[in-house]
Amino acid sequence: MRAVRFHKYGDVDRLSVEEVPDPQPGEGEVLLEVRAAGVNPADWKILGGAFAGGEPLGAPRGLGLDFAGVVTGVGAGVTGIAPGEELLGTPTSPTFAELALSRPELLVRKPPGVPWEVAGSLGVVVGTAYATLDRLALQRDETLLLAGASGGVGLLAAQLARARGVNVIGTASERNLEVLRALGVTAVTYGDGLAERLREQAPGGADAALDASGHGELAVLVELVADRRRILSIAGAPEAAQLGVTFHAGGGGELTIPALREVLPLIESGGFAFPIAGVYDLGQVADALLASQHGHPPGKLVVVPA
Length: 306
What we know:
Quinone Oxidoreductase, Chain A, domain 1; Rossmann fold; six-stranded parallel β-sheet
């Protein structure tokens, strides 16, 4: 199969599309033909060695942390899943590739009305949005400040919070404000003067905050939320540590499957907006990572191998 891989940590110029042996499903595993795989900030962080602890890369590796595809094979002990089924969720092998492995407990069935590009982009962002809101313990009529509200996690967190009766004030670039307003979010532009703009919307402060941006807004959020235990960042670990704020790095964990089961019907029915900001093939993964890191895309970026 074709797969995106890198042999040393570094920038996107380390990436190449290579021919590698097809993975084979072992006991308890499922093999899928990848139809779409979401791009997440963790992908370019992994490429850059952010989680390597300074150690060199021991062997070539790939990227891609969520996906949707068609089952092509099952390993021993797998029941209830057959070739030809359409599934999505969390993989156990990189998904910027034509084939990927997973396990039944990490997968859910793709509803017919959810496009492949959307289905393949949901796992990480849905799980993360769901888990962070769970940790913030938001109640109806409370106010959430959400930095980076037009990104993948931000859009889902905003909609989940609004569906639970929470008031959401979200930051975004000027071009993405109307997207947020259409979802019932009070939208403000980030940049110079952000603290004043947020205070205009929440003169008494806010109950909780989520930093899904990582572009310097966390310090402003801290000024407006009295209880730092109700502030989370998923995008700026060093800044969070400096400000005494919890950094959430665990994605959705065991909440990912319940989160997908809640959100998928809403997306299929049109109750949730989940825009796709860009679609890339395997040879364009470098462009996708650069867009994720620097482009502030209004929605999710997705890799389509075929």
